[in-house]
Amino acid sequence: MNLTDPRTFIKPVILLLVLAALTFVTSLRGETDTKPFEQTPVWASGKLYAILWMQNSAEYQAVARQAYAAAAYQLDKALADTSTTALDETTGNSALKKPAVILDVDETVLRNTPYGAWTIRNQKSWDQQDWWEWCRLEAAEPVPGVVDYIQTAMAKGVHIIYLTNRSDKVAVATRNNLASEGLIPDPEKVTFYFKEDEERLGGKYHETNKIFRRKQVEKEYRVIQMFGDSLGDFAGNGHLSVMDRRALVNHNQSRWGRSWFMLPNPEYGSWKESLKDYQHLDQAESFSKEMQALQPMK
Ligand SMILES: [Mg+2]
């Protein structure tokens, strides 16, 4: 064997390359053929693109800023017109009440996409303990535009109400996180309602229901604007179907962009749960429901 002649190595190298290619193809085929659907990578669920969009796109930033800028622009008018409120649950003479705004927290005020991104990188599903751990890091950044809006509203004498489905188990962390981002400029002028408050006030908690907490706010305040990333942050009581959710939006068409402001959240929420009638389905069943919900060209 002549070790200085490159031709000596050509045949073994080609053989090795062919073997490597065959092994790769075989392993891919094996994976496709034998891997049950339940093990399909999390990126297949679409969560990857939702989070990429929310974390990286200029368009996400623009949509969020658009909502808060439009709201700030209309604050003076909303304060002056004491006859109207943003709440369905309005009773009594609202003109005599102090003005307030209601904001949901997650994906409306604070951005939790780092938690979602972590679940993708680590091939994990949503988990209560992991979620609380993320909340306790107090590391969520504000949604674009919200800090300016809160500071403007508060300077105009508007009370701020954070009405969240976060548990009171993470109440301290949530307050700290918001405060560190300039979202509690004056603690005296901010009120919190957590998940447990819904039942404390006589309601029945489920993820789409904030109605009893809104009723409680209404007793004391004239709510002039509301913000959320899910329809339940504004109205509705219970698990509404896809069609009923859309009908509710249309029914309230005069409110959007005036007193109701929706923030985008393609990652999760009741929009996604409504596709599977709010059932707890495994990944294969969920995927099947999502495919059925597509409306392809004929
Ligand atoms: Mg939310």
Describe the structure.
This protein is of the alpha/beta class. It has one domain (58-293): 3-Layer(aba) Sandwich (Rossmann fold), CATH 3.40.50.1000. 47% of the residues lie in helices and 10% in strands. The chain has 13 helices and 7 strands. The strands form 2 sheets. A 5-stranded parallel β-sheet has the order 5-4-1-6-7, with helices on both faces. Helix 11 (242-251) links the parallel strand 6 and strand 7. The chain is globular. Mean pLDDT is 86; it is low at 13-37. Magnesium ion (MG) binds at residues 104, 106-108, 229-230.
How much is the average pLDDT?
86
Q: What is the N-to-C order of secondary-structure elements (H for helix, E for strand)?
A: HHHHEEHHEHEHEHHEHEHH
Structural class category: alpha/beta
CATH class: Alpha Beta
If classified by CATH, what would the architecture be?
Answer: 3-Layer(aba) Sandwich
Number of helices: 13
For the structure shown, list the relevant keywords.
7 strands, two-stranded antiparallel sheet, alpha/beta, single chain, Rossmann fold, 5-stranded parallel sheet, 13 helices, binds magnesium ion, 298 residues
